[in-house]
């Protein structure tokens, strides 16, 4: 535990200008490397990510606007249905003797179908918004992953020489062979 603490304490220590060499202390170099990589990703990916999110936001806003228009039309249909209902109620008073129960059934069917239509439109709007949000999140995740993967591959390709590359491939082939034997 003392070594771990010492390695964090020594992060503030800088060697004199005359010395040069490789720092093999993993705890001291990884946070620096991660900070540099994250800084580069944030610096170069911020604009792309911002544009993607703005475009997605506009699509979602357009979808919401369209859903609101559908809702407005549904409200108009509801008002027409209510006007029709009032008309049916007046006719019901006139023809109460001849068919009061039939008119009542028509009224209930009309109200039920209107409410079902409104409910379906509201569900459609909510599903559309949820779908657009999930689509935007998935698209952004995929692009961030792609950028990170390209950055990592670029870093690996620039850091590996042929000998180290061949040794790494051989070690991985050996691991896959061992895994295959274990599975079989």
From TrEMBL:
F-type ATPases have 2 components, F(1) - the catalytic core - and F(0) - the membrane proton channel. F(1) has five subunits: alpha(3), beta(3), gamma(1), delta(1), epsilon(1). F(0) has four main subunits: a(1), b(1), b'(1) and c(10-14). The alpha and beta chains form an alternating ring which encloses part of the gamma chain. F(1) is attached to F(0) by a central stalk formed by the gamma and epsilon chains, while a peripheral stalk is formed by the delta, b and b' chains. The keyword Coiled coil applies. It comes from Primula oreodoxa. Residues 71-98 form a coiled coil. It is found in: Membrane; Plastid, Chloroplast thylakoid membrane. Belongs to the ATPase B chain family. This is ATP synthase subunit b, chloroplastic. It is a single-pass membrane protein. In plastids the F-type ATPase is also known as CF(1)CF(0). GO terms for molecular function: proton-transporting ATP synthase activity, rotational mechanism. The chain crosses the membrane at residues 32-49. The lineage of its organism: Eukaryota, Viridiplantae, Streptophyta, Embryophyta, Tracheophyta. GO terms for cellular component: chloroplast thylakoid membrane; proton-transporting ATP synthase complex. Keywords: ATP synthesis, CF(0), Chloroplast, Coiled coil, Hydrogen ion transport, Ion transport, Membrane, Plastid, Thylakoid, Transmembrane, Transmembrane helix, Transport. The keyword Cytoplasm does not apply. Its main location: membrane. F(1)F(0) ATP synthase produces ATP from ADP in the presence of a proton or sodium gradient. F-type ATPases consist of two structural domains, F(1) containing the extramembraneous catalytic core and F(0) containing the membrane proton channel, linked together by a central stalk and a peripheral stalk. During catalysis, ATP synthesis in the catalytic domain of F(1) is coupled via a rotary mechanism of the central stalk subunits to proton translocation. Component of the F(0) channel, it forms part of the peripheral stalk, linking F(1) to F(0).
């Amino acid at each position: 535990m003392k070594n771990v603490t010492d390695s964090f304490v020594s992060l503030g220590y800088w060697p004199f200008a005359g010395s040069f060499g490789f720092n093999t202390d993993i705890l001291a170099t990884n946070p620096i490397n991660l900070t540099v990589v994250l800084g580069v990703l944030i610096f170069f990916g911020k604009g792309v990510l911002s544009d993607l999110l703005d475009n997605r936001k506009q699509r979602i806003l357009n979808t919401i606007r369209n859903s609101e228009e559908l809702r407005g039309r549904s409200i108009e249909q509801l008002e027409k249905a209510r006007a029709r209902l009032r008309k049916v109620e007046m006719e019901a008073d006139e023809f109460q003797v001849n068919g009061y129960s039939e008119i009542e059934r028509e009224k209930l069917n009309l109200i039920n179908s209107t409410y079902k239509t409104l409910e379906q439109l509201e569900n459609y709007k909510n599903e559309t918004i949820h779908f657009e949000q999930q689509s935007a999140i998935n698209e952004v995740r995929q692009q961030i992953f792609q950028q990170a993967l390209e950055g990592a591959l670029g870093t690996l390709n620039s850091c590996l020489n042929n000998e180290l590359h061949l040794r790494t491939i051989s070690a991985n082939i050996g691991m896959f062979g061992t895994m295959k034997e274990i599975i079989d």
